[in-house]
Write a structure and sequence with these properties.
128 residues; mainly alpha; 4 helices; transmembrane; membrane; transmembrane helix
Length: 128
């Protein structure tokens, strides 16, 4: 009887060891499959970041600045400008200069329009 109990315990130990090895092997296979899937998902993202356009570069610079405690908007603008082509940079500079030159003129026109509206409202109120 004692031998049969010992034999059953040994048989059980052997089966448990085989189960452990099988679980370990399946876990390793599953881990490898998960790694492959994650790598499949990450490759396009890494390629986009490495060869990304101006928008991606601006976004990454903004995130980097936010993580370091700097102004993310300013960093994103600098990242956007650094990623532009030379022609685009020239066009942007011309647009800014034009805006700076025409800004005061537009402000004067707006103020004149408001002044005319105020005079018209005053005349209408006095006529009643």
């Amino acid at each position: 009887m004692l031998r049969s109990v010992e034999a059953a315990i040994e048989w059980l130990k052997a089966h448990i060891r085989r189960l452990q090895e099988t679980v370990r092997d399946r876990g390793a296979m599953l881990t490898e499959k998960i790694k492959q899937k994650i790598q499949e998902w990450m490759n396009p993202l890494v390629d986009e970041v490495a060869h990304g356009g101006v928008g991606m570069q601006a976004g990454l610079e903004g995130v980097r600045a936010a993580l370091t405690g700097k102004n993310p908007v300013w960093a994103a603008i600098k990242g956007l400008v650094s990623g532009l082509s030379t022609k685009a940079k020239v066009a942007l500079i011309l647009l800014l200069v034009l805006g700076l030159l025409l800004g005061p003129v537009l402000l004067v026109v707006l103020l004149l329009a408001l002044l005319v509206m105020a005079i018209v409202a005053a005349v209408r109120a006095a006529a009643r």
